[in-house]
Structure formats: C-alpha cells, structure tokens
Amino acid sequence: MKYKNLPVYEQKDRILEMLEHNQVIVVESPTGSGKTTQLPVILHEAGYSRSGMIGVTQPRRIAALSVSEFISKQLKEPMPGLVGYKMRFEDKTSNDTKIKIMTDGILLQELKLDPWLSKYSVILVDEAHERSLNIDFILGLLKRIITERKDFKVIISSATINTDLFSMYFDGCPVIKIDAITYPVTLIFDPPAVKASTDTQEAETALMDKIASIVGRILSEGRSGAILVFLPGERAIKDCIERLSKEPWYRKLFILPLYGRLSKEEQERVFKSPPFGKKKIVISTNIAETSITINDIAAVIDSGLAKLNFYNPFTFTSSLDETLISKASCNQRRGRAGRTQEGVCYRLYTRKDFETRQLYTLEEIYRTDLSEVVMRMAELGILDFENFDFISPPGKKGIIGAIDTLNMLDALESDRSLSSIGKMMCLFPLAPRQSRIIVEAITRYPDLVEEVLIAAAFLSARSPVIFPEGEEIEARKAHALFNEPLGDFASFLKVFRMYSQALDKERFCKIHYLDDRVMAEIANIKEQLELIVSDMGVPILSGGKMEHYLTAIAKGMIQFVCSAQGRDSYRSLTTEKIFIHPGSCMYKEKEQFIVAGEIVRTSRMYAMSVSPLSKKIIEEVAPALLKRKDKRSKKEKDEHRTEQKEEKKKPEEESVLIEGSRYLIKKIKGKKHLILPWKEFKLTAEALRKKYSEENQNGALEQLKGLRGKIEINKSELLSGEKMALILNVVNNFNIEQIEKTEDEKRFDKNKNYFIEEDLESLVNSLNLLFRTTIAKKTTKQLGFITLFCDGTGHFWFKTSRGFHTALHESLVSLQSLIDLAGENFNEDQKIIVRNIYGKMNKMI
Fold first, then answer.
1. What is the rounded CA–CA span in Å between residue 493 and residue 452?
2. Do the Cβ atoms of 786 and 798 come closer than 8 Å?
3. Biggest alpha carbon distance in the chain?
4. What does the pLDDT read at residue 765?
5. What whole-number distance in Å separates Cα of residue 207 and Cα of residue 190?
6. How would DSSP label each residue in 153-194?
7. One GO molecular-function annotation for this sequence (predicted)?
8. Which terminal residue of the chain has fewer beta carbons within 10 Å of its beta carbon, N or C?
C-alpha cells in the first residue's frame, strides 16, 4: 500500500505548520482519509517523539489494537517497541515506545498519576465526534493542561460532524479539513410496510422482508461492489441473516456480521474479498459508521436505527433503547457507499421522517452514569463538580445522581474529597460499585478476596453464556449445571473454578455453551485485579463464609438491593416493580430480599445477576429497606384519598381523538384509562401501524403518554389498567380475538393435566395455544391470556391469566422447566416447536 497517496498527506505541511503555531488543532476528514494511522507517523517523522511520547486515544479496544498493529507494520518495527498499545488489563508498551495507542480510559488513569502528562509531547484524540463520556472528560482535562504547559500539543481528530464545536471550545483553534475522493451516491427512500423497528414482531418481520427485497434487487441488477446493512443490534443482525437464508439466492451471498462482541479476527473478516461468484454483504451495528472503513462498499441499506444506553440518575437504573439515529449519523452511513465507485443508499424510512430527526446524536454525557467521572475528578482534586469545564455541561441532575451514588458507597467525605474507602476504590480500573465490593472484602472479609475478585471480573465483562441459533434447548440444559441455591453470584464462582480446572478450556466452553473469549477475558481481569491487590500488600485468600461474600456484594451493589413487593416483584431504595430476569438462575425463586449486579429496563424493570440475601445482611447493609417494606407512606395515602375525592367530584368524562376516532377517558383508582371498544380500536391500531411507516412514531403517540387503557370485547375486558404502549405492542403482535368453539378451544381444557412421561407429545402440540385470549373470570367477564403453568416436577397445565406480563412470566418459567426436564426426550419436530415459542417469548422480555 502506498501510504503517501492517502488524502491526509495532501495536508501534511499545513497540519505541521498549524500545529507549530497553535497548541490545539482540529483535523476534520471523512473515514478512510488515513488520519487515524498516518497522523501519528507524520508527527513522529516531524520530530515530536524526540521530546516526549505521541499519545493516541481510541474509544474502542479493537481500534487501539488494529491501529497499533497497522502502524508497527508500516514502520517495520516490532511491537512492543517504537509502537505499542495499552488498554484495560493489557499493556504492550516498552521503555522504547514513542507512539502509544491507548483506549481513552487508560489516558484517564495516567492523568491521576501524572496530571500534566509530562511524558507526552502531543495527544491525538481520535474519533472525537463520538463524544463518549471519556472523550468529553479528556477534552476538559486537556484544556487545563494547555494553560500550564505551553509546549504541549493537542490534535482533535474527527469525522465531518460538528467540528466547529471543538474549535469554539478550544478558543477558536484552527480546523484543517481533509477531502477524500468520493463518488456520487444515489439516495432511495424505501420504507417497509410497517415503520422500521425491532421492538415488535410485526415491525421486525416487515423490516427484514424489506432488506431481503432490496438485496434481491441489487443482485438482479448485477451491481458491483459489496453491500453494507445497518441494524440496531446483535440480535437483529442474527435475525437478518436467518431471514436472508430463506431466499433462493442465499448461496450467492458472502455474509459477514459486524458487532462489538465479535473477536478481532472475526471483525477483520469484513475487509476480505468475497469468494469468486459471491456477493459480499456486511450486516453491522453503528460500529461501521465511522470506526471501521470497508473500502469495497457500493450499496448501503440503512434501517435508521441504533441502540443507545440511557441512565436514570434518580432510580440508578439503565436501559438500552432502540432509537432513531440523527441526521448526522444518517449521512455518515450514506457516505460508506461511494468511496471507490458510484454507490446507492437505501433508507428504510421516508424523507419526511429524515427531516424531523435530530441534527446530532444526544451526547453520552447526558444519558449515562457520571459516578466514575465524578470519582476521578475528586481523585484529581477537582471538587467543584458542577462547574467543571465540560464541552457539553451535563447539568445538575446527573452530577447530583453521581454524588448520591458515591455517598451510598462511602467514597466521599462531607467536603466532597475522597474518603479512605474512595481512595482505595480508585486503585481499581472498574466502575465504583464493582471496586467497592473489593474494598469491602479487603477491609472486612480478607478470607474472601479471591471470591470477590471473581465476582468483580464477571460484573465488568459481558455475560459468557451463549444461546446459538437452533441450540437454545441444549444451551439451557448445559447452563443448568452451574445453578446454585445462592444464586448467580455463587454460580460465578462455580463457573470460574470449573473453567480454571479444565485442561482444554476451549472444549469446556463449547460443551457448556460459554463464550471462550469472554471467559478468557474474565480470567485475565481477575489476574490483573490480583496484581493490584497484591501491590497493596493484601494476600489473595479464599474460603470464607458465603454470607460474608454476599454481604460484600451487597455493600457495593447497595443501589440494587431489593425487598419483595407483591407476588413476583421487588423494590429497591429508589424504584419499584422490579422483576428477576429470566436469564438468572433465581428466576423461578421467590426470596424476601435479593441483590442484583444491575437493574435494567426493557419491557419491564429487570434485576440481572441475582442472589438472595438474609434479613441479617439487610439490617447491616440497607436497614432503610426494612422500614419501607410493606408500608405505604403517609404521602401516598394522602394522595390516594385526594384521588378518590377528585373522582367523586368530577363525574364528567374526558376523551381523546386518535386517528379520527374518539375514545372516552375514565379515572379508575385515580389513574386515567382509555376505554377501547375492540371493533373500533382494531381499526385505529391498524391506522397507527400504517402511520408508523410514514412519520415519527413518537409524534403519533405523544397524546397517549401517561395513559392506561382497557380493551372491551363483546362486553368483556382485556389488558385492563395496562399502559397504552404495552396495549399497542400486544395488539401489534398477537391475535387477541377470543378463541372460538373450534378444535383449539376443545384442546384448551383448564382441568387437563399434562405429565412429561405420558403426555409430552400432546403438551408440545398444545403450546400454540399460548397467549390466545379467553374468559378469565366469568363473574366479571374479564378476558385473559392462555398461560402455561408447572409445579417443577413434570406436571404442567394451561390456565388463563388476566395480566399479559403474568402470562409471559409464568409461561417462560414453565417452558424453561419443560426444557430442563424433557429436553433430551424431544424429537426434532418438537425441538423446533419449543425453540420457536421460547425464542419468541424471549424477544418479548
């Protein structure tokens, strides 16, 4: 490859001239100009490495690794040597390293030991347009450094997204624009029949059908070049591959998935040329927007969707939400085509939809947990958290939420400086909650340090359990081996010890349906944490009481300590209606108190990685939870009485107009409910579905926010009191017409009992009754959903549940029990039936 022909070299002299006369410059260019790999080389050849290291930050581990390897090969230098890289728990640098590629988190760690970065002559912040929380924090710290070190240089490297903001932040520093050769890209707006989404089965099916249709069209037109499809997440990518496999031309495709969980080797396959006679198609998350350049792309299919994490600083819970991407991201995706030839971009949304989108993606600082950044600020002696000079100030709510978190973890003194516990927490490159459990073990339970390090390693990595397509039943059986009475945190220890003792670790992972790369990462994290603890002079001991182990976990995860609330839900100190996630080995259990590794909102608020806690532990760790248990506050009682009075005072009825139909609003138990006659609402729901494909869904449903409803069918009620968002979701995904006097109804016998040994075939054949609707309670004419129940011993029966979530929860528990008890006895046809139903229910979670 002729590196000097890359577009960045056209501006080489200007870049060096501007950097000589300015402490900060912004380099703006589209992906593929060579700025990431060549700017460090240009700086090295210009002599900047003689007075200090050239530091390059990358937002992703995979990028840090690939960039360092590329530069070392280009310079024909071994690594580590002149070129090296460093990321969390992995250091490939030496005393000779002059060009250091690192993740942005590593630079933050180095700043606490060397606040003025005295070892560096220049820092290049790459992919700055991504505006991650770490990038924003780094920019603020670099701005402080340049006021103290006049010899220090900073380069902000960005794609063509809002670079003027960086210039203004650094007092009008120059912006150098690098133009890359591009070819015309034809835009085609071609939305699916239902607005693009993977939130409902109907919408996802329409989306996948549209993608298959476009791919078929491209193949029939004989277009040269590869295809790049953008989808919001890993599951959608796998569903898309499965959908394409049903087409007659599937064998003509060379399909390559691309998402964050893939290994470096798997990700690098996207750069390969396809076998002769095949069309290369890369199906990717937003990782291919700017971070990875695939040169042979000629056609882009853009769903217009991405998944973003949102954090609630009041409830300390997070959610990974599917969102519409910004205009800037839409244009970045379009730009992936036309790099080497004329291209085409199919947008699976309307032009009107595009025009209503936000200009830029909401910065991470507004939607993430700030506790780690605030703790690092305190470590650096920056105590005026609210007034730190962020490029985009996060606002007081996020800062207050972070301070509350750190106070609950005993990390701050009253003057906001770090406490002795906080100082120890900062020694670990982990989130504050995870480092707190280690500190608790070190200070109070030294005979459990090893166990707690294992738990911290699991919490800081992705889940290692996998469910390969078509092997879900086998995977569940394999994972059941690790189940422990004391829950997931006890299971972590069992999994790790069995893995550590296995002579053939890859085979062990394959047999037990574990991701071998994730398990290797967990082992590496644990080893690195042991080194940190050993450097503190603390021995790595194990074998202490499990009660003490769970106490240490609860101390760090105090925000996720919960007490039972109702039949199957829990409440924490800050939020209610939390349910144990089906992926937990505690899913079928009902404990008085639990601790979770995380609480995430999807279709419900779910506790992930769950273990039971004794009342004794609660009294020590979260006594306030006991005071709240089974009590309604005076304020709540007063509000309830006020609502009852208001109901009596206001007999008049409100109404709302939806798609030309007017629906009454009645107050039931103090909450507004929409009354939805089925025949009318069925048409309204259909109109809304069509509208989703034409304009922004949020605008169409804005008037329904905060409302609950109930569907009336033949003088019966369904989904009474549920939120309108859930009602629409159920209506969009299920046939909720009552079952008629047909063979199906005859098979739905509430008095029939199924036993695995005698009735397995009959039971499996009856599973298609699940979620059909029928009378739940004749005296009140309540409709409900047909639900599968079990007693855990091989005895199953069908029954009607009024609530959709109850039906989903009970059916999922029962289906998991069926898989655990009878999985080996299923024939191939039965496996397919169970897999399909199990997969569909999991997607509804």
1. 9
2. yes
3. 86
4. 87
5. 11
6. EEEEEE-SSSHHHHHHHTTT--EEE-------EEEEE---SS
7. ATP binding
8. N
Dihedral sign (CA 140, 143, 149, 152): positive
- Structure tokens of 441? 């073990």
Tokens 């046809």, residue located:
829
Q: Which domains does the chain have, with CATH numbers?
A: 3-177 (3.40.50.300), 185-366 (3.40.50.300), 369-426 (1.10.10), 443-556 (no CATH), 557-631 (no CATH), 645-733 (no CATH), 743-843 (no CATH)
What phi, psi does 518 have (nearest 5°)?
Answer: -70, -40
Contact yes or no for 622/614 (Cβ under 8 A): no
| The token pair that represents 236 in the structure block | 């959608």
Distance CA 735, CA 345 (A): 36
pTM: 0.80
Cβ-in-10-Å burial (0-12, 13-18, 19+) of 11 comes to buried
Q: Is the dihedral of CA 483, 488, 494, 500 positive or negative?
A: positive
Token pair listed for 263:
């290994």
What length does the chain have? Answer: 845
Structure tokens at 786: 């047909």
User: pLDDT category, 281, cuts 50, 70, 90?
Assistant: very high
Structure tokens at 170: 């650094």
Which tokens go with 692? Answer: 């989703």
Place of tokens 């003057």: 415
- 484 residue type, one letter: E
Tell me if 557 sits within 8 A of 595, measured CB to CB.
Answer: yes
- CA angle, corner 72, sides to 69 and 77, nearest 5? 140
Q: How many degrees, rounded to 5, is the angle at CA 840 between CA 836 and CA 842?
A: 120
- Confidence (pLDDT) at 779: 67
Decide: 551 and 617 in contact? Cβ < 8 Å.
yes
Instruction: Write the pLDDT tens digit of every residue in 744-778.
Output: 555 566 678 888 888 888 888 888 888 888 877 66
User: Token match 């590196």: residue?
Assistant: 3
